[in-house]
Amino acid sequence: MAKEKSTKVTPDMTMYQVKKTNPVVRVLIYIGLIFWLFINLFPIYWMFTFSLKNNEEIFGENIIGLPKHWLWSNYAKAMGSGDMFNYFKNSIIVAVATIIITTIAALMATYAITRLSWKGSKLTNSFFMLGLTIPMHAAIIPIYIQLSRMHLLDSYIALIVPYSAFSLAMAILICTGFMVDIPKDLDEAAHIDGCGVWGIFFRIIVPLMRPALSTIGIYTFLQCWNELMFASIFNSKSTYKTLPSGIQELSGRYTTEWGPIGAALAVATFPTLIVYIFLSRKIQESFIAGAVKG
């Protein structure tokens, strides 16, 4: 008769089972999670209600509660008189162009570094990684001088090029974590079937890099959408201002009317929340895929 296998129960396993099955512990965990959810959602609630109030409610009568009079006209003032529609359009143009340039450049650079054999590939990768050590706003003066000499100030390019350059290092780092896990046997099989370097890149590598592309897109979008210093210094004309720098002009224009300022802040903030809600699962999958090796 075969001996039955005995499983040794460790103190850690016992503690985990108690935490998992004990109703009191579960209730406390749920209470803590609900409290943490409230802490994270309250600023969004406050900003939204702030954008629909008048000055009397904002500064004393009704600071936290729902608006007594829902002033949707604040959004009309912000988007119309405050020229927020133009700032919103400029932010979208800059963000989309930056994401496209950063993604294409990062994919091609990572492919050349990790999949092709040539001298200096490791040195090139180290050179790109140096970009992670340089603070973005430490280069304001040299970038401003170069843009001024090239007559590129007060244009979309004045923001798209610096944003893409400073996003490239992190994008390459993300792509490298994924691309090194793709078996090189796929490259050899595609090469035998007649694919060249570009064919392997577009038909094999790019489709397998979709989770990484989602992560790069979110990271680049958040970095350039919320950036203020470059947007304020490199673009002084209202025609090319983005949302962060445009809201500054709005605050000066409506010094006694804070409702439109709250509406402008809501317009600038909610797109980032919406993008993250729709792509959060892709981001989580990308982190999980990047963490599993072999």
Topology of this protein?
Elements: H1 11-21, H2 23-50, H3 55-61, H4 73-79, H5 84-114, H6 121-129, H7 140-149, H8 157-179, H9 185-192, H10 197-208, H11 210-225, H12 229-234, H13 243-253, H14 259-291
Write a structural description.
There is one protein chain. The protein has 294 residues and is mainly α. The chain has 2 domains: 63 residues, no CATH class; 214 residues, MetI-like fold (Orthogonal Bundle), CATH 1.10.3720.10. Helix content is 72%, strand content 0%. It contains 14 helices and no strands.
Order of helices and strands, N to C?
A: HHHHHHHHHHHHHH
Question: Total number of β-strand segments?
Answer: 0
Q: The biggest beta sheet, please?
A: none
Residue fraction in strands? under 5%
Could you give the distance between the termini?
Answer: 40 Å
Given helix and strand content, the structural type is mainly alpha
Low-pLDDT runs: 1-7
**Helix proportion range:** over 70%
**Rough outline:** globular
Kindly provide the radius of gyration, computed on alpha-carbon positions and rounded to a whole number of angstroms.
26 Å
Count of separate structural domains: 2
CATH architecture of the largest domain: Orthogonal Bundle
The total of helices stands at: 14
At the fourth level of CATH, the homologous superfamily of the largest domain is MetI-like
What CATH calls the topology of the largest domain is: MetI-like fold
